[in-house]
Amino acid sequence: MPSSQMHSPESTFKRPSDQSSAYTEERKRYWEEYAATASKWAGIRRYYQSRLAEIYKLSVPPGMRILELGCGDGDLLAKLEPAYGYGIDLSSQLIDKARHKYPGLHFESADASDLQLEGEFDFIICSDLLNDLWDVQSVFERIADHCHPGTRILLNCYSRLWEGPRRLAEGLGLAKPQLGQNWLTVEDIENLLTLAGFEMIRSSAEILCPVRVPLVATLCNRYLVKVWPFRWLGLTNFIVARRTPVANASPDPIVTVVVPARNEAGNIAAILDRVPEMGAGTELIFVEGNSSDGTYERIEQEIAARPGSTAKLYKQTGRGKGDAVRLGFERSTGDLLMILDADLTVPPEDLPRFYEAWRTGRGDFINGVRLVYPMEQKAMRFFNLLGNKFFSLAFTWLLSQSVKDSLCGTKVLSRVHYQTIAANRAYFGEIDPFGDFDLLFGAARYNLKILGLPIRYRERKYGETNIQRWKHGVLLLRMVVLASRRIRFV
């Protein structure tokens, strides 16, 4: 090639930083133009945005510290009722609108790629943002600087299958023409999260019908999009993630072990002798449930026979194990809360394994699993075993997390997480006498990482089970229906 036709690399190619800047500036102009004409598209987008807000509100309790990247005019952030809300967006016009509409929240015109804030947040939201970013991984890495161990990242992103329909809608004038997009799959997003030091907790396809059509929109968006094969056609993918866990460096917690006890007099001495010391100390609380075999008196005697024992005893005023657990948790002082069934079918010596699983951050809610290892011969009757396997599959599907055993009595979670669940318990009602589903439902709703811990289930040595197979089986089916209505099909 003649020298007169040759070009230097600098004149032919832009540096990556220049490309990134040009990309961002183009999008800033696009969103400023959108802000100036937003009223033109507001009616078309209103139903889609309101449906997104419903989905986010299901996962975010009120009164949290929330950061939203790509907040637009602040509507979603405001609907989540934060104690402290901070939104940033490329468009200064949209930020001005947000400040005017929601003076109690904080807004700034900025680029998510240059995120420079102080402090940590309970939830960080990226709604319809990833499609527009030059470098998604680098934004995730910046987000990480504002996360504490309990922070949850909530995001939604257009499904790749909707690229064609979106272009068609643009051609028909039903949607504003977009710039080039990142059409990311759930697997793409999960990989980018992993590279930035996060792990995905769960994902779901959402919104099959993005416009308000009476009855049809409800049918599509609450029900059909949640089941095969329609879930593959959802317009947006909703994802919840957290920081990849590391060993908890904070001081060892005080551990509270709550033991609901009804007609378990023969097991009390063994419980007092075998519950181990964990963390900064173990607080043992018995809640006796109107026994007919002298369990309350036996607990008093056994505590008195151990002069150094700090175990506490309370008389249950309501009915059911769930009521007993709630009383025990209310009277506890520990930072980490455990449940141990008084029948000793789960050995107290296994509790340190639950403690370590929580302490290392591998799970927020540690759930015992009896269905992995072989059980002792008379530990569980055949139809009970079949029922447990059925309900484990049902609740895994309903909660979008693996729940291998829904009725193992041994469960572990922090006091902070329990308080969040308890404060919002009314959402599910008061029909759970076991307490297991009350905690599982709350853990799933508020995006706790549920971790199953296999144990070897033992045969009961004293007394008889308080579970009534058929009566309680019907009640469990009611719990499945409740979870369907309150978590899955909403």
Describe this structure in a few short sentences.
This protein is α/β, with parallel strands linked by helices and 490 residues long. The protein has helices at residues 9-12, 16-36, 38-59, 75-79, 92-101, 136-144, 163-171, 186-195, 216-223, 268-274, 295-304, 321-331, 351-359, 382-399, 415-423, 436-445, 469-488, and strands at residues 65-69, 84-89, 106-109, 121-127, 147-158, 198-206, 236-243, 255-261, 282-288, 312-315, 336-339, 365-369, 411-414, 450-454. Strands 3-2-1-4-5-7-6 form a seven-stranded mixed beta sheet, sandwiched between helices.
Describe the overall structure:
Helix content is 39%, strand content 18%. By secondary structure, it is of the alpha/beta class. The strands form two sheets. Strands 3-2-1-4-5-7-6 form a seven-stranded mixed beta sheet, sandwiched between helices. It has a seven-stranded mixed beta sheet with strand order 10-9-8-11-13-12-14, sandwiched between helices. It folds into two domains: 222 residues, 3-Layer(aba) Sandwich (Rossmann fold); 234 residues, Spore Coat Polysaccharide Biosynthesis Protein SpsA, Chain A, CATH 3.90.550.10.
- Count of helical regions: 17
Secondary structure: helix percent: 25-40%
CATH topology of the largest domain: Spore Coat Polysaccharide Biosynthesis Protein SpsA, Chain A
Within CATH, the superfamily of the largest domain carries the name: Spore Coat Polysaccharide Biosynthesis Protein SpsA, Chain A
Number of strands: 14
Through-space gap between termini: 66 Å
Radius of gyration: 27 Å
Strand arrangement across the biggest beta sheet: 3-2-1-4-5-7-6
CATH architecture of the largest domain: Alpha-Beta Complex
Nearest-integer average pLDDT: 87
- Which of globular, elongated, flat, extended, rod-shaped describes the shape? elongated
Biggest β-sheet: count, sense, barrel? 7 strands, mixed
Which CATH C-level class of the largest domain is it? Alpha Beta
The computed structural class is: alpha/beta
Indicate the low-confidence ranges by residue numbers: 1-12
Total separate domains: 2
Q: Note the beta-strand portion.
A: 15-25%
